[in-house]
C-alpha cells in the first residue's frame, strides 16, 4: 500500500507543478499563448486521472492561469472534486480555485452545499476556516439560506479563529439572504463584547457595514458602541466605530453632543494619524448634524480646521489629500471657517499631484463669494491654459461651470463676464464637455433677460467663426456650443445687430459637416432669422432685398434637404417649401413678414427638468383602469383563444358600444372639460383658462433694469473676460464710496437713536450689488406639483433588503419577536426536528413568548401597524413628506415608551440617555413650557402641593436670566427642521405661484441672514442639588392615536446634578388636574409618582420622558408637581424635594404640519373658521426671523411668503386647523388668524404676543 | 468593503489578483490594465489615493496603493474603509509576506502565488478585514503549512527532492530583486495593535 503511494508520487514528480508552469511561461515569452494552450491540454489530461493529488496539482495551475485571464470555468466540477478531498492540502487548493472563479451563475455550486456543511462542522479548525474563506467569495442566495444556520452556530464556536470568520461571513449571508438578519442579529450583537479582540473587531466590522446602509436601525446600539469606543485600544476597531458614529449622528443629534468630548480627547491624545483623521471626520459629521446650538461648537470647528490645516501643510501627500477631503465636508456647513484658509487651498491648486489638485478644486466650489468669484475663475482659467492632460482640463472646465452656476447663479454679479468666460472656454481643444458649455449658454440666455442682447452678439460671432471651432475635423464635443449659438441667435434674433450676416453664416455649406442634431437646429433657426430679416427688410420698403433673402434660403436649403439625417431633412424640406411659397407671394408684392413672424411668435419659458414627473395625476383618474371595459365573456362569441386576443378586444368593444345616449355623452364631455381645465399641459382654447398664465404679473411685467453703461455693450471680436475684472473692481469701488457717504449720513442721523443694528464693513457680501439687476426666471413646474427630494433613489441597491427593524429584537421584551417564518431554515428530515431552531436553542430570551397570548396579540397589532407603516412608506404620497414619515417610523421603531413611560432602568451611566433621547427627538414630544413662574424651592415638605409659591431661595433672579440664556442656546434639530421647512417652502413657491411670482433675484430667498439660535429647553426648577430643565413642545406623538383616545403630550425633562453627591431614588410626581393627567406605570395609584429610571452621579445630567394625557386643549394648563430624591454622601443620605410648576401652553398642543397653498386656500374658503387678529408693536427683527420664531416657538409652518407677508399653518393634536396671515410694515406686525376653535386661537395669539414682547 | 486587491509589477504583469465581486476574466484583465495605467504614471512622491477607476465601483470607490521596489500593491475600497487604515493594512500585508518568505522578493510572488493567497486569506475575507495583527496572521499561516507538511509525510519527500533538484540548476532565480526597504514606514502611521 505504502509502496503504491510512493510509486504514485514518483510518477507525479515528473508532472508539471505550479512552479514548473510559471517557469515554462517565463521561458516562452515569444509564444506564450501557444505554450499555455499546450499546458491547458496537459491539465485536461491530468484532471481525467483518478489520483486526487494530480487533480489538485492541475487545479492549482488553473488558478494561476485564471489570474492571467484564461477562463477556467470548464473545470468547475473538478474544482468541486478537489474541494471535497479529505486532505487539507487539496481542500485548500480547491477552495482557493473556487473562490477565484465561482460566481452566482456557476451551476455546480449547488453540488457543494453538503460538502461545505461537512467542512464547516469539521473537527479541524482549518478545514472550517478554509471553507468559510471560500464561501465568503462565492456565497449564493441558496447557499446562504441553506448554511445560515450552520454559520450561526459557528459564531459561538470555542475557537476564536472560527468565531471571527463566522461573524465576518454573516455580512455576506445577510446580503444574499436578508431574512437571516433578524434571527442572527442578537448573537451578532453579543459578539461585540466577545473576549477575543479579533472576534470583536469582526463584529464591529459587520455592524458598521450594515449600519452604513441603514443607519437608523442601529441607533439603539449607540450606547454599546460608545462603551467600546471608550474602552477599546485597537485602532482598527476604533476607526470603524468612529466611522459608524459619523453615520449615526445625522439621525440623532444628541448622540453627537455626547461624542464631541471623547472625540476631542482622542484628537488630542492619539498619535495615530489614521485615528486622528477619522475623529476629525466624525466631529465634522456631528457638527454638521448639530449645525448650531452647541455652546462651544465654534471651538470644535476651530479645532478641526486647525488640525486639518496641519494635515494639509504636511509634507506627506496622503495627509494633504485627506485634509482637503475632510475640509470639503466642513465647507458645506461652515464655509466661513474654511474660507479663512483660502490661501492654502489656492496653493494646493498648484500642487504637482493631480489628486490633490482635484480635491482643492472641490473646495473652491464653496469658497467663492460674489466678491472673489471673478478672481478665482480667472485663476482657474490660467490653469486651464496650462493643463496638459485633457482629463484634468475637463475637470477644471466642469468646475468653473459648477462654481459659476451654483445655487442659481448666486455669485455672479456680471453675466456679461460669465458669457465671455463661456465663450473663452469654447476655445479649448478636444474637450468632452461642449454640451455643458452649450447648456449653460442656453440657460443664461433664456433666464437672464437683460443679457440677451450681449449673448446674441457673442453667439453671432461664434457662428461666424464656426470654422475655428470645428476645424477640419469634427473635434468631438466642442461643436455642441454651436447648437446653443444657433438657437440663441434664432430665438432672440430681434436683438441681432446684423441678422442677415448671421443668416448667411448659418447657411454655409460647411455646416453640413456638423452632427445631425446641430444641423437641425441650424435649419430651424435659420427660418427664425429669415422671418426677422424679412420684417426689417419689408419695413424699409426695399422689396428686392427681401426677395433676395428668400432666394438665398432657396439656394442654400437644398443642401440640407439632402442630409442623411432624417430630422434635418424633414425640417429643411418643410422650410424650403414654405420659403418658396413666400417667394411667390413676394413676387405678387404681398406683405408677408407679419405672417411669417407669427410662425415663431411667443416666448418659451424654461421648464424644470423634473416638471414632467411632477404632474400630479388628476383626481379621479385611475391610470390602471380600463379605458373601455373588456367585454364580458358572454359577449365574446368568437372562439378565438382569449389569451392571445385579450388585448385587442377593447377595440372590438368600442365599435359595439358606440350607441351611448346623448345624456351620457354630455356628461362625459363635461367631465372631460373639467379634467382638461385641471391639466396644466392641455392647451386651452377658452380665454378664461388662459388667464392662469396671462393675468398674473408674468415675467414680462417685472421691470428689467437697463444695463449699466459702465460696461461696454459691444466687445469687438471674441470677448476677453479679464477686462471685466477691472471694470468690476472700479464699479465696486465707486459703489463702496457711495455707500460710505450714505452710511456717514445715516450714522449722523442715528447717533441719537438706538444705534445701528449691523455695522457691516465695506467688505461684506451684501454690499456687492450685481452690475445690473438681473432677473433669473425660475424654471416652470406644473401646478400642484408635488415637492419631493427622493427622486433619485436607486431601486436596485442590494442593501435595501437589509433595511430591517432590529431594535425590538434587542430589547428583551421585543415588540416584534421572531415569527416562526423568520427562523433560519434548518436541515431536517422529519418534522419533529424542526423544534431545534437556532432561535430557541441559542437565544431563549428572544423567542416569541407564545405562552403569553395576551401580550402577543398586542404585539401582533403593533406588527400590523408597522406593516401598514411600511406600506405607507412605499406609497408615493408618503414619499414627499419624507421627513414626516421618518418621524413616524422612528417613533414606531423606538417609541415603546410612548405608551409606557417607564424607560429601561438597567444602566445608570450617562450613556443610557442615548437610546431614549432618540425617542425624545423622533417620537415627537409635546412638552409644556415652564414659565418664569416656576419657583425653585429648596426645603422639604411632604405634601406635593404644599407651599409651592413662596420663594425661599434667592435664586429666582438667576433662574430668570438663565432661562433666557437657555432659550437662546441649544437648538439642534429644531433648527434643522426649520431649514427643511424653509426649503420646502421654497420648493413650494416654485409650483404654487404658477407664472405669478416666477422671478427670483440672483441666489435664493433663504440666504438672508443667519437666524439667531433658539432653544426650547427652559428651566423648570432648580435648587442647590438639582436643576430640572424641560423641553418645550416639539410635536405630538402618534397623531392618529391621539384623535381617538385623548391626546397625549410627552414632556422631556433634563435632570442635572449640581451638587457633589449622588442623587438617587428620584420620584417625579404631579398633582393631576381634571384635564391633564400624568400617565403612570400600570398598577400604580393616581397619587404615586413616576420613578425616574436613573441615578445621577455628580455633574451628570440625564433626560426622562413623561407622558401626560390631556382632555381639552383649548386652554393653557398649569400643573403643580414635586420631585423627591435622596442625596447620598459618603456618610449620610438626605431626602430632598423640589417643587415645580408645569405649564402647558396652547402652543404646545400644536403640531408643525406642512400645508400646501391649495389646501390652505380651500381651508380658508370653507368658512368653518373663526377669525381673530392681533397687532404687535415695535417688533425689531427681520421678517424672516419673525417667521422663524413663530415656526419655532409656536410650531407653525410657512405656507407661502410674498415679500413682507406670509401665510402660516399649524394643526392641533386634536385636529384643529390654525391659519395665520402675518404682515409686517415697519415695526408693526399684524397677525390675522383663523381657527375652528376660537378659544384656542385666542390663547395661541396671546402666547405669540408674549413671545415677542419678551424679546 | 474591499472590492479588489491587485498586485502587479512595474510592467503591469499581474502577480496576484483577488476580486471580491464577480467579473468575467476579460473584465478582470481590463481592470488590471487600467489600474496599472492609472497607477504607473504617478510620481513616487504623490499621494497614494486615486479616484476614478471607472471599471470598479464608481464614485464611492478609491484605489489605495503602495509601490515597493518592483511591485504595486493596490487595494480598491469603498468609503467605509479608512484610507490611512488601508495603507497600514498594505504595510502589514507586505511585512507579513516578508516574514513568511524570509526576505520576500518578486520571484516569491511569481512562483508561490498560492501561498500569497493563503496569507491574504488570513487578513482579508470576502472583502472585509479579518485580522490586522501580524503575529496572529503568521501564526495561523504557519499552523496551516505545518499541517500541509504533515499530510505530505513520506509520500511528499520524493516530490520535494525532485523540486529541489529542479531548482538547483536554475540561474534564472536570483534572489536579489528585493522588495525594497519595507522597514521604512510612512511617518505618523503606527501599525495596528
From TrEMBL, chain B:
Q: Name one GO biological process term.
A: intracellular protein transport
Which segments does the entry list as coiled coil?
A: none
Q: Sorted alphabetically, which InterPro entries does this protein's record hold? A: AP_complex_ssu, AP_mu_sigma_su, APS3, Clathrin_sm-chain_CS, Longin-like_dom_sf
Q: Which residues form the signal peptide?
A: none
- Alphabetical UniProt keywords: Cytoplasmic vesicle, Golgi apparatus, Membrane, Protein transport, Transport
Looking up SUPFAM superfamilies in the UniProt record yields: SNARE-like
* Residue stretches making up the AP complex mu/sigma subunit domain: 1-147
* Localization per record: Cytoplasmic vesicle membrane; Golgi apparatus
Asked if Aminoacyl-tRNA synthetase is a keyword of the record, the answer is: no
What do the Gene Ontology cellular component annotations say? Answer: AP-3 adaptor complex; cytoplasmic vesicle membrane; Golgi apparatus
Function of this protein? Part of the AP-3 complex, an adaptor-related complex which is not clathrin-associated. The complex is associated with the Golgi region as well as more peripheral structures. It facilitates the budding of vesicles from the Golgi membrane and may be directly involved in trafficking to lysosomes. In concert with the BLOC-1 complex, AP-3 is required to target cargos into vesicles assembled at cell bodies for delivery into neurites and nerve terminals.
Task: State the similarity comment.
Answer: Belongs to the adaptor complexes small subunit family.
Identify this protein by name: AP complex mu/sigma subunit domain-containing protein
Amino acid at each position: 500500500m505504502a509502496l503504491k503511494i510512493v510509486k504514485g508520487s514518483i510518477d507525479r514528480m515528473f508532472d508539471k507543478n505550479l512552479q514548473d508552469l510559471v517557469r515554462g511561461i517565463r521561458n516562452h515569452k515569444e509564444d506564450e499563448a501557444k505554450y499555455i494552450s499546450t499546458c491547458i491540454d496537459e491539465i485536461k489530461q491530468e484532471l481525467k486521472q483518478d489520483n486526487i493529488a494530480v487533480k489538485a496539482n492541475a487545479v492549482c495551475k488553473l488558478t494561476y492561469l485564471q489570474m492571467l485571464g484564461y477562463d477556467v470555468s470548464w473545470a468547475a466540477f473538478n474544482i468541486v472534486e478537489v474541494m471535497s478531498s479529505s486532505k487539507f492540502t487539496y481542500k485548500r487548493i480547491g477552495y482557493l480555485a473556487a473562490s477565484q472563479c465561482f460566481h452566482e451563475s456557476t451551476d455546480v455550486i449547488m453540488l457543494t452545499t453538503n460538502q461545505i456543511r461537512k467542512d464547516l462542522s469539521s473537527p479541524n479548525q482549518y478545514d472550517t476556516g478554509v471553507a468559510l474563506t471560500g464561501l465568503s467569495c462565492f456565497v449564493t442566495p441558496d447557499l446562504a439560506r441553506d448554511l445560515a444556520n450552520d454559520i450561526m452556530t459557528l459564531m459561538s464556536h470555542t475557537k476564536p479563529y472560527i468565531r471571527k470568520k463566522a461573524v465576518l461571513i454573516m455580512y455576506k449571508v445577510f446580503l444574499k439572504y436578508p431574512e437571516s438578519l433578524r434571527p442572527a442579529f442578537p448573537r451578532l450583537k453579543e459578539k461585540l463584547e466577545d473576549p477575543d479582540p479579533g472576534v470583536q473587531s469582526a463584529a464591529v466590522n459587520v455592524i458598521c457595514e450594515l449600519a452604513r446602509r441603514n443607519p437608523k436601525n442601529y441607533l439603539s446600539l449607540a450606547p454599546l458602541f460608545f462603551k467600546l469606543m471608550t474602552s477599546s485600544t485597537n485602532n482598527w476597531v476604533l476607526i470603524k466605530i468612529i466611522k459608524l458614529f459619523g453615520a449615526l449622528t445625522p439621525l440623532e443629534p444628541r448622540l453627537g453632543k455626547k461624542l464631541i468630548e471623547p472625540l476631542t480627547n482622542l484628537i488630542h491624545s492619539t498619535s495615530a494619524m489614521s485615528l486622528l483623521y477619522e475623529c476629525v471626520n466624525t466631529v465634522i459629521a456631528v457638527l454638521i448634524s448639530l449645525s448650531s446650538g452647541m455652546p462651544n461648537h465654534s471651538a470644535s470647528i476651530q479645532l478641526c480646521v486647525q488640525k486639518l490645516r496641519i494635515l494639509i501643510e504636511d509634507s506627506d501627500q496622503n495627509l494633504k489629500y485627506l485634509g482637503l477631503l475632510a475640509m470639503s465636508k466642513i465647507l458645506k456647513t461652515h464655509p466661513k471657517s474654511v474660507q479663512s484658509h483660502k490661501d492654502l487651498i489656492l496653493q494646493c491648486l498648484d500642487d504637482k499631484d493631480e489628486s490633490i489638485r482635484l480635491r482643492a478644486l472641490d473646495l473652491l466650489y464653496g469658497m467663492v463669494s460674489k466678491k472673489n468669484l471673478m478672481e478665482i475663475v480667472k485663476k482657474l482659467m490660467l490653469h486651464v491654459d496650462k493643463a496638459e492632460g485633457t482629463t484634468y482640463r475637463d475637470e477644471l472646465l466642469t468646475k468653473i461651470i459648477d462654481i459659476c452656476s451654483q445655487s442659481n447663479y448666486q455669485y455672479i454679479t456680471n453675466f456679461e463676464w460669465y458669457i465671455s468666460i463661456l465663450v473663452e472656454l469654447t476655445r479649448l481643444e478636444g474637450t468632452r464637455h461642449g454640451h455643458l458649455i452649450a447648456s449653460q449658454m442656453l440657460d443664461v440666455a433664456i433666464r437672464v433677460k437683460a443679457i440677451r442682447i450681449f449673448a446674441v452678439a457673442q453667439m453671432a460671432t461664434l457662428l461666424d467663426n464656426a470654422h475655428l471651432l470645428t476645424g477640419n475635423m469634427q473635434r468631438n464635443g466642442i461643436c455642441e456650443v454651436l447648437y446653443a449659438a444657433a438657437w440663441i441667435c434664432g430665438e432672440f434674433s430681434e436683438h441681432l445687430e446684423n441678422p442677415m450676416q448671421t443668416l448667411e453664416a448659418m447657411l454655409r455649406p460647411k455646416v453640413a459637416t456638423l452632427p445631425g442634431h446641430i444641423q437641425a437646429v441650424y435649419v430651424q433657426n435659420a427660418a427664425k432669422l429669415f422671418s426677422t430679416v424679412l420684417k426689417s427688410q419689408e419695413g424699409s420698403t426695399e422689396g428686392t432685398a427681401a426677395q433676395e433673402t428668400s432666394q438665398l434660403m432657396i439656394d442654400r436649403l437644398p443642401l440640407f434637404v439632402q442630409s442623411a439625417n432624417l430630422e434635418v431633412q424633414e425640417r429643411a424640406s418643410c422650410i424650403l417649401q414654405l420659403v418658396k411659397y413666400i417667394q411667390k407671394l413676394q413676387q405678387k408684392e404681398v406683405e408677408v413678414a407679419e405672417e411669417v413672424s407669427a410662425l415663431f411668435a411667443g416666448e418659451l419659458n424654461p421648464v424644470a427638468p423634473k416638471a414632467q414627473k411632477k404632474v400630479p395625476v388628476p383626481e379621479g383618474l385611475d391610470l390602471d383602469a380600463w379605458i373601455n371595459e373588456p367585454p364580458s365573456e358572454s359577449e365574446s362569441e368568437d372562439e378565438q383563444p382569449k389569451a392571445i386576443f385579450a388585448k385587442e378586444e377593447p377595440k372590438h368593444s368600442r365599435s359595439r358600444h358606440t350607441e351611448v345616449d346623448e345624456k351620457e355623452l354630455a356628461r362625459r364631455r363635461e367631465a372631460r372639460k373639467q379634467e382638461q381645465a385641471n391639466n396644466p399641459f392641455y392647451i386651452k382654447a377658452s380665454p378664461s383658462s388662459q388667464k392662469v398664465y396671462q393675468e398674473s404679473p408674468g415675467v414680462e411685467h417685472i421691470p428689467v433694469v437697463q444695463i449699466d453703461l459702465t460696461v461696454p455693450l459691444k466687445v469687438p471680436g471674441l470677448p476677453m473676460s479679464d477686462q471685466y475684472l477691472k471694470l468690476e473692481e472700479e464699479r465696486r469701488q465707486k459703489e463702496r464710496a457711495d455707500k460710505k457717504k450714505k452710511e456717514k449720513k445715516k450714522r449722523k442721523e442715528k447717533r441719537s437713536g438706538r444705534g445701528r443694528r449691523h455695522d457691516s464693513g465695506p467688505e461684506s457680501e451684501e454690499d456687492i450689488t450685481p452690475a445690473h439687476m438681473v432677473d433669473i426666471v425660475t424654471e416652470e413646474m406644473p401646478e400642484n406639483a408635488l415637492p419631493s427630494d427622493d427622486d433619485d433613489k436607486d431601486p436596485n441597491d442590494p442593501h435595501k433588503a437589509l433595511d430591517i427593524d432590529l431594535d425590538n429584537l434587542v430589547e428583551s421584551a421585543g415588540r416584534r419577536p421572531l415569527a416562526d417564518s423568520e427562523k433560519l431554515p434548518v436541515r431536517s428530515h422529519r418534522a419533529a426536528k424542526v423544534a431545534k431552531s437556532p432561535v430557541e436553542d441559542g437565544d431563549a430570551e428572544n423567542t416569541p413568548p407564545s405562552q403569553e397570548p395576551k401580550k402577543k396579540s398586542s404585539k401582533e397589532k403593533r406588527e400590523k401597524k408597522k406593516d401598514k407603516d411600511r406600506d405607507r412608506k412605499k406609497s408615493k404620497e408618503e414619499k414627499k413628506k419624507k421627513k414626516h414619515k421618518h418621524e413616524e417610523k422612528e417613533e414606531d421603531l423606538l417609541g415603546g415608551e410612548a405608551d409606557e413611560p417607564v424607560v429601561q432602568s438597567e444602566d445608570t451611566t450617562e450613556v443610557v440617555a442615548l437610546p431614549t433621547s432618540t425617542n425624545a427627538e423622533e417620537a415627537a414630544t409635546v412638552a409644556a413650557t415652564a414659565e418664569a413662574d416656576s419657583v425653585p424651592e429648596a426645603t422639604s415638605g411632604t405634601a406635593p402641593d404644599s407651599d409651592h409659591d413662596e420663594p425661599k431661595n434667592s435664586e429666582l433672579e438667576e433662574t430668570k436670566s438663565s432661562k433666557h440664556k437657555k432659550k437662546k442656546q441649544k437648538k439642534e434639530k429644531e433648527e434643522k427642521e426649520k431649514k427643511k421647512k424653509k426649503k420646502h417652502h421654497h420648493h413650494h413657491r416654485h409650483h404654487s405661484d404658477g407664472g405669478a411670482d416666477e422671478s427670483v433675484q440672483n441666489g435664493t430667498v433663504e440666504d438672508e441672514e443667519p437666524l439667531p439660535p433658539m432653544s426650547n429647553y427652559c428651566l423648570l426648577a432648580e435648587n442647590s442639588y438639582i436643576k430640572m430643565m424641560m423641553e418645550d413642545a416639539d410635536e405630538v406623538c402618534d397623531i392618529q392615536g391621539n384623535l381617538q383616545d385623548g391626546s397625549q403630550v410627552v414632556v422631556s425633562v433634563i435632570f442635572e446634578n449640581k451638587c457633589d453627591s449622588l442623587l438617587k431614588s428620584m420620584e417625579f410626581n404631579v398633582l393631576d388636574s381634571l384635564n391633564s393627567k400624568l400617565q403612570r406605570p400600570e398598577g400604580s395609584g393616581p397619587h404615586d409618582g413616576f420613578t425616574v429610571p436613573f441615578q445621577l452621579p455628580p455633574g451628570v445630567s440625564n433626560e426622562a420622558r413623561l407622558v401626560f394625557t390631556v382632555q381639552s386643549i383649548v386652554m393653557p394648563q398649569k400643573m403643580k408637581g414635586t420631585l423627591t430624591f435622596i442625596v447620598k454622601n459618603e456618610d449620610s443620605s438626605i431626602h430632598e424635594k423640589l417643587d415645580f410648576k408645569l405649564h402647558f401652553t396652547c402652543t404646545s398642543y400644536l403640531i408643525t404640519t406642512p400645508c400646501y397653498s391649495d389646501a390652505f386656500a380651500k381651508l380658508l374658503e370653507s368658512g368653518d373658521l373663526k377669525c381673530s387678529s392681533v397687532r404687535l408693536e415695535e417688533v425689531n427683527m427681520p421678517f424672516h426671523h419673525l417667521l422663524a420664531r413663530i415656526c419655532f416657538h409656536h410650531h407653525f409652518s410657512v405656507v407661502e411668503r410674498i415679500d413682507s407677508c406670509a401665510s402660516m399653518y399649524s394643526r392641533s393634536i386634536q385636529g384643529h386647523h390654525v391659519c395665520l396671515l402675518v404682515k409686517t410694515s415697519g415695526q408693526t406686525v399684524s397677525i390675522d388668524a383663523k381657527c375652528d376653535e376660537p378659544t384656542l386661537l385666542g390663547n395661541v395669539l396671546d402666547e405669540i404676543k408674549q413671545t415677542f414682547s419678551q424679546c | 468593503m474591499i472590492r479588489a486587491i491587485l498586485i502587479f509589477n512595474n510592467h503591469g504583469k499581474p502577480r496576484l489578483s483577488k476580486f471580491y465581486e464577480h467579473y468575467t476574466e476579460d473584465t478582470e484583465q481590463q481592470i488590471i490594465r487600467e489600474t496599472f495605467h492609472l497607477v504607473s504614471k504617478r510620481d513616487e512622491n504623490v499621494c497614494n489615493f486615486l479616484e476614478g477607476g471607472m471599471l470598479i465601483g464608481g464614485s464611492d470607490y478609491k484605489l489605495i496603493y503602495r509601490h515597493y521596489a518592483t511591485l504595486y500593491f493596490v487595494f480598491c475600497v469603498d468609503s467605509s474603509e479608512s484610507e490611512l487604515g488601508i495603507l497600514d493594512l498594505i504595510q502589514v500585508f507586505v511585512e507579513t509576506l516578508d516574514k513568511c518568505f524570509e526576505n520576500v522578493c518578486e520571484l516569491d510572488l511569481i512562483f508561490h502565488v498560492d501561498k500569497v493567497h493563503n496569507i491574504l486569506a488570513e487578513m482579508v475575507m470576502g472583502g472585509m478585514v479579518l485580522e490586522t495583527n501580524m503575529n496572529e496572521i503568521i501564526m495561523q499561516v504557519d499552523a496551516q503549512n505545518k499541517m500541509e507538511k504533515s499530510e505530505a509525510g513520506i509520500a511528499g519527500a520524493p516530490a520535494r527532492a525532485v523540486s529541489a533538484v529542479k531548482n538547483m540548476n536554475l540561474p534564472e532565480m536570483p534572489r536579489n530583486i528585493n522588495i525594497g526597504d519595507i522597514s521604512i514606514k510612512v511617518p505618523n502611521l503606527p501599525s495596528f495593535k
